[in-house]
Design brief:
single chain, 116 residues, mainly beta, 7-stranded mixed beta sheet, 4-stranded antiparallel beta sheet, 11 strands, globular
């Protein structure tokens, strides 16, 4: 059974930082392309960052580039999202997403709220 379990969300003040983690089990993590998505209230889910399995190439949506960093630890089967200089507009449910052998998997999400 494949499981993606996110953690690390919470309430943070504008300008603060959070580190999200997504622990993956039940699939060969080293050959999975991993992504973080987010969905704010009343909005569609959007891709935030992606890291490939082959060369750990990374891509970011424009609004987070330079503030967020996606990384992976294949030994721990975990993907991370380091979020710095957080803004109120970053408030959303953040989801981990895996693609491996053309199959896709979602985590249950972790809430990030940026507010003073």
């Amino acid at each position: 059974q494949v499981q993606l379990v996110e953690s690390g969300g919470g309430l943070v003040q504008p300008g603060g930082s959070l580190r999200l983690s997504c622990a993956v089990s039940g699939l060969p993590f080293s050959t999975a392309t991993m992504s973080w998505y987010r969905q704010a209230a009343g909005k569609t889910r959007e891709l935030v960052a992606i890291i490939t399995w082959l060369d750990s190439d990374t891509r970011y949506t424009d609004s987070v580039r330079g503030r967020f960093t996606i990384s992976r630890d294949n030994d721990k089967s975990t993907v991370y999202l380091q979020m710095n200089r957080l803004r109120p507009e970053d408030t959303a449910m953040y989801y981990c997403y895996a693609v491996e052998s053309q199959r896709t998997y979602w985590g249950q999400g972790t809430q990030v709220t940026v507010s003073s």
